[in-house]
Protein 1
Amino acid sequence: MEKISQGKAYVAVALILAAALIAASLIVTQGFVKVKASQNTLSVKGSAKKEIKSDYAVWTGSFSVQSGQLSEAYSMLSNDAAKVKQYLVDSGIPEKSIVFSAISTSTYNEILPNGVYSNKIEGYRLFQSVEIKSADIDKITELSRESTELINQGVEFQSIPPQYFYTKLADLKIEMIELAAKDAQLRAEKLLAVTGSKPGKLRAARLGVFQITPPFSNEVSDYGINDTSSIDKEITAVVSCDFEID
């Protein structure tokens, strides 16, 4: 019966902290639940860590042209966009997944012999980006590395490293809260066992921020970390609990 009661307590802690988590829009910095005040308490921190693998990726590439004539620059950029699109389709990317940004335009001025810029416009620079979102992590990773082949086709192309995400994060956070709460309970039991005491009622629980980092990273932030550079990641949750001492 005692194990069943403890199990219910873990779930209760997880549900309380999960409610605080949702109310604070996924990441809570100081979630706090108060019960009755008492001085005969023990404060412990529990933690839980789990390895996760990204299941969604976003990749962006960009290309640009410049010309003394604006109309010519637009024509050049349009030709390059067609090459980029064809390359992506040939690489196995569905046409509906290829999203081009609006075209950005800037000017550059003539430089005088003394090195000073004049007020005369010498030409135009046009810039455009392309974005791919996909659950095919391997395809996006390969594309980000190989897409600079477009340079061989005369396209001034730049590939930006993909961003990797785990889409089931909301559900996982609730699970991590429960595991961290169980760890806090276990730590309290171990600490009090040598004195012949045991943890009693939970008086307060505080949820720390989640740290989502690359594997083996020791990076920690008071505001939490959400790494998007790595396919494989580690998520860490910390819960601080105050127990009455029986």
Note: The chain has a mean pLDDT of 87.
Protein 2
Amino acid sequence: MTVHHPTPAPNTAVSAETASADMSQGEARTPRRVLRILLWHVHGSWTTAFVHGGHTCLLPATPDRGPDGRGRARTWDWPRNAVDTPWERIRGSEPDLVILQRPHELALAERLLGRTLGRDVPAVYVEHNTPRNDVPVTRHPMADRDDIPVVHVTHFNDLFWDCGRAPTRVIEHGVPDPGYRYTGETARTGVVLNEPLRRWRFTGTDLLPTLAERVPLDLFGMGVAGVPDHFGLPPSRLRAHEDLPQGAMHDQLARRRAYAHPLRWTSLGLSLIEAMMLGLPVAVLGTTEAHEAVPPEAGTVSTDPRVLAEALHAFHEDRDLAFRTGTAARAAALRRYGLTRFLDDWDRVLQEVTS
């Protein structure tokens, strides 16, 4: 088996590459025209980026904080323009725009508002997911409408979803810069997966033992506590860290020598971009959008898990290689997935749809 290790970027200066001129988390900017936008808190990292745009974000909130009423985040630092909105107040909230993210939200929003989306109030559907079932002929829920644009988060998704009559756009992810924190002092590899036992092959959970044979793993995320026992792996090979607050997880990840991203069928895990921005070198399963996100100098991308395991081992053995590759990874992530670019792209779509 031939293993291709990443080539560090030539003459990379840490002080230059680790600096950021992009937005950080917690402070929203002021848009040219402030809109009132109704959207559900579905994906925490994406919503964190979006609410930094400065528009008044009306977040449905219910007493149980269930999937249709999470409201403001409790583990992220969100600006004040993100506003909890009880269901009973949504009808009088008068949004300029509704952002849909799940199929059932169309009927739910129309019931709560008493208005028809696409006719009485503009709407946009953000598609976070890769298609399922009959790929590549899977029909999108909005495919038979031309009055609600579909915004994809990756070009891969735009290519593989059949959106029919619906206008489509691509706005790639934006991530608030967590800052360069990498130390690599802990000779273990970090992995972030949410609900890995339930999602299994989608998240590449089945690949963890192959990686753990070569390097010890620390698994972070929601629903990870039972994973080591499921595989019968001792803490020396796989440890679970259950649902840490985002800031604490970033601090822990930055101490790990490298980051592994085994996800098989997801759009593009934001945890990968966050790890790169923290300064970690990465080894990434080469599916969906991965090859676009990780240039050669930033890490290893392969569809062979054994190649990823060997790349991680190389980072563990050579700290200079790990530092140089991680520095290049941070620079690449800031260039492509900076928050300012994301918000600029969204402002153009929002102003167009509501004009």
Note: The longest strand covers residues 186-192.
Protein 3
Amino acid sequence: MGLDLGLERAGFDIKLACEIDRYCRETISLNKPDIPLIGDITGYSAAQILQAAGLTGSDDIDLIVGGPPCQAFSTAGKRNGFHDQRGNVFLTYVDLVLTLKPKYFIIENVRGLLSSPMKHRPHTLRGPAYPDLALDELPGGALYFVLDTIKKAGYAYSFTLYNAAHFGTPQIRERVVIVCSRDGKRPPYLQPTHAQSNAMGLPPWRTFREATADLAEHHHIDFPEKRLIYYRMLKEGQNWRALPEDLQREALGKAFFAGGGKTGFLRRIAWDKPAPTLVTHPAMPATDLAHPEEDRPLSIEEYKRLQEFPDDWQVAGPLLEQYRQIGNAVPSSLGLAIGRLVISLLRGEPYQEPASFNYSRYRNTNDALWIQQFERMQRGRVEQQALF
């Protein structure tokens, strides 16, 4: 509901919510009992969705917003793209939206969408002895297919990888947001409100201290004692690398020999920076989220502040389910930025696209650069095939 809360802050009236998860549904009902709620989107036609929202075929929908299940595209773990059932939900969402024909619609997803293939070929079946990757097997093939579908339906679009910290969220959280417009005019990028280094004269990113220092009550899970031994040696902003060298291998165990930076192991959050990306469990060894000073994981109350839910927001289910729900949410301020953009476009108000603002720390993540990169890769594949 983070997106929804942000849209409401911008001035939108939510006509219908869609959620399949049991505990998320309970949470929505607890906090927004007046909003109609449907379940598995694959079980509904466009006509049934209109009926559930109290609308008719003659009503012109201003905006549809969706974050179809992102695990199929996650950069962590397997990358099955649209061959994953959750990827099929993604396509169902796009098909329904194009049938409903809103003035604007939004697709929100994880960074992995930018590089997920339409069809995954196992690495054991790649190399000189095997055929080159087909178009639908190329990195980014899933997104390219979706964008082509949107374009053929007459919609224009823009997208980039947005860091929610640029919109006032006290957390580093990156999400791909695709804004699609029925009028065929490319929508501008979202207007940032904060910056890391005083870019455009904007105020600095909000910090963990600003967001949470006044909290008095905390409900949280606990770290096992064998990890608390090491946490008691660490100061705010530090991780396992700050331990004495002779203890680093002992603290990490087998993970010590794994690749990567391992920055999430035994990690205390810094007071005066945005929090790292919230995960669905704050005490998993590789993605620890420990309080700057107290020997505990972040609390549910801190999770809510960092995702910008109201303090009185009720979260259904046992503690671990509450972490999962809030950790999977979209920060409210990102929803607010989306809402402000769309309302400006609906009203025909001038909206100045930020010039040369560095939204992301990664390369080729906006629509223009990403498409250029994908089409170069596609041409290279065709040229290579022509040599044989």
Note: The chain has twelve helices and six strands.
